[in-house]
Amino acid sequence: MKIVRESLIEGAQRAQGLTIIIDVFRAFTTTPILFYLEAKKVIFVRNPEEAFSLKTNYNDIILAGEINEQQIPGFDLGNSPSELIRKPKGFLKGKTVVQRTTAGVTGVISALAQVQEVILGSYVMAKAISRYVLAQNPLPEVVTLVAMGRRGITQSPEDEGCADYLEHLLKDRNYNSLETLKSIVFNETAQKFIRGDKPYLPREDPFFCLQKDLFDFVLVAVKEDGLVAVRLNRI
Fold first, then answer.
1. Using omega within 30 degrees of 0 as the cis cutoff, is the peptide bond preceding 231 cis?
2. Taking the CA of residue 178 as centre, how many other CA atoms within 13 Å lie in the half-sphere pointing to its CB?
């Protein structure tokens, strides 16, 4: 099994084999929490217009997402794990959530132009992801890890670090937890939350995003009836 490392939107566009799109801050920490809150289904869209169209045509649709980190006007939720985790379990029970984000969701949609399915990557699902990949029979010849970075245009230590962790789990490569955490926490990608000077960047979000292996399921995005749907696979 060959591990290919890619980054950013252009990396997603080069995806091959079994593909894992990584967005730690915050999309793919948020998506598993949507399922934890008992959402029935999650659909990914490229832009707000697609989301509003779906809400017009279907009942029980919740819109969640951001453009450049800020909640989209007219959406019900932003892209904050801590905002969601304050909600009671069952808050989304039976609902379909339409999610749009600048980096992670856009990366998944871009990758699906080349591959059949995409695994959503983050620290909170990392061990489950590794078990899912290693349980494939036969093992995939190629696994592409795409770290989406800041807005899909510049690399970020949390996504590259999560890719390192997944590579460690899949191939027993070295992973230094303390050094990786230091590189993330003191970088601007985490500091912009820690400063607490922007309400759409809650201080609490990095605490949830950097927790390893919270969930025992894997989220897989596929094309389904003309949409990009996210499926939950328990491990």
1. no
2. 0
**Tens of pLDDT along 102-130?**
999 999 999 999 999 999 999 999 999 99
Whole-angstrom Cα distance, residue 65 to residue 235? 27
Q: CB neighbours (10 Å) of residue 235?
A: 14
Q: What is the pTM of this model?
A: 0.97
* Domain count of the fold of the chain: 1
Note the pLDDT of residue 181.
Answer: 98
**What residues contact 112, with CB distance under 8 A and at least 6 apart?**
118, 221, 222, 223, 228
Hey, what are 224's tokens? 């389904």
- Express each pLDDT in 70-104 by its tens digit: 999 999 999 999 999 999 989 999 999 999 999 99
Domain that holds residue 47: 2-234
Residue 124: both structure tokens together? 């909170």
Q: What is the CATH number of the domain that holds 112?
A: 3.90.1560.10
What is the pLDDT averaged over residues 169-189?
Answer: 97
Q: Is 85 left (phi over 0), alpha (psi -120 to 50) or beta?
A: alpha
